[in-house]
Amino acid sequence: MSRTFYVTTPIYYVNDVPHIGHAYTTLAADVLARYKKLKGYEVFFLTGTDEHGQKVEKAANTAGETPLELADRVVKRFQGLWEKLDIQYTDFIRTTQERHKKGVSHIFTKIMAQGDIYLGEYEDWYCTPCETFWTETQLIDGKCPDCNRPVDKLKEESYFFRMSKYQEQLLAHIEANPDFIQPKSRRNEIISFVKEGLRDLSVSRTSFNWGIPVPGNEKHVIYVWFDALTNYITALGYPDEQSAFKTFWPVDVHLIGKDILRFHAVYWPTFLMAAGLPVPKKVFAHGWWTVEGQKMSKSLQNVVEPNMLVDRYGIDAVRYFLLREVPFGLDGDFSHAALVHRINSDLANDLGNLLNRSTAMVNKYFDGVLPAPGPQTELDTAFREKTEAMVRQLDACMDELAFSKGLQAIWEVISAGNKYIDETAPWALAKDPAKREYLGTVMYTLLEAQRIVHLVLSAFMPRTSAKALGYLGWTEPCREEDLAWGRLAPGTLIVKAEALFPRIEEKEEK
Ligand code: ME8
Predict the structure, then answer these.
(1) 380 occurs within a structural domain
(2) Ligand 1: which of 7, 20, 24 to mutate, judged by most atoms within 8 Å of the beta carbon?
(3) What pLDDT digit, counting tens, does each position of 17-68 carry?
(4) Ligand 1 center from residue 326 Cα (angstroms)
(5) Which one of 162, 397, 428, 441 has the fewest CB atoms closer than 10 angstroms to its CB?
(6) Residue 355 beta carbon below 6 angstroms from any ligand 1 atom
(7) pLDDT per residue over 255-269, tens digit each?
(8) What is the CATH number of the domain that holds 489?
């Protein structure tokens, strides 16, 4: 049986254009998906857009468009950016698609039929930007506790989901599955939240129209979060249980930002429990990016536009930086200076130089033909073992979504490679005909280690890796077994590499 892996990003609201925050989650999902493919998994990687709700309706009114016109326009911005960032998703779901609306109506009807959705009346405070209801006691100084913006009092007839009924089942599940909510600090927050008591949740609205109608009562539209969360199964073909749904559900990991953890770790699992469906295996909430120390916002005009970054620094530099700079799960700060520093030191200096130096030497000493390894010393075995250990370490890091730590492990091999050159001093070996076989060992070890480095790096920096592997004469598709040492055949033609990353003048960057 083939191993499968299903990873999702949030579906993004179309009332805003994409920025590095959105790019971050989607990139992380792409890296994970590519890595799992490399390891032989059958992967389903889902992203998409959240197109219903009051927020989108309001933005469309302001723009003088219908909500669907707005969505059609903004969705292209997201899809264009994903193409530009080399994001290889399997499917892109839009909540305005028929397949989605059909699935949402189905699950809503099913939960209602068994009595876990009922009609009642709502009176509470509503934060439109967050699309969230709050009780009087949750407000802070009369404002939304999440975003500190004013809230409106809403009283309306509403359908309710009997979330309270699932409180104990959810708590038991969280406690029995330490990996379900990550990172750990966030898991603790959710446990406290659930222990405070779950109230029944309003899951319909009558105050606006832009949404999926409640089956059998078209005065109501389904609450945007109930609609949005369901995308993770409708995209797989739910309610047709013989579709991709059968192969890929439950999801291996929902990647989200910490802002929307409660929806994914409390609301969504309880909806699924009510529908009799398995809950996600893991929900991982990453941290928040600020920009040069400040919150990103339109009013501060400091929103970092990923298209601009890619035009300026290149796709792979941006992909590398975002995942390397900040441990996944912690908050991070974006600055041009930090990005340029990473490009110059990690990419140009360490990674690029190692490839340049070693491919140049094979060309100089062996006319570009990879020699067979000869006798080994402790230096060569140690370097080889370090490379092999890195492959195992990286695997553990990817399971924990510790992207930065995984990259660090790869870079330790790169640094060790540069050090290995200094210690073996191939230029001295080349002068002594008696050392020619050992020179072969050094060249082989250097290039074979880099073949493995670039195979694993292909998940993070696909273009750079493809280029590097080309110089190394490796034209095979990447398969898991190729991560083993010794696959690069002696006799392979090695091309002298051009600089992978030109250095950038640091003082120019602001
Ligand atoms: O919440 N730092 O959509 P959204 C890090 N439609 N990540 C950030 C970020 C930042 N500064 N800003 C945004 C929604 N993100 C709902 C989701 S899912 C069923 C429905 C990322 O467009 C992060 O992943 O507001 C965050 O969770 C998401 O964008 C919010 O996107």
Answers:
(1) yes
(2) 24
(3) 899 999 999 999 999 999 999 999 999 999 999 999 999 999 999 999 999 9
(4) 17
(5) 428
(6) no
(7) 999 999 999 999 999
(8) 1.10.730.10
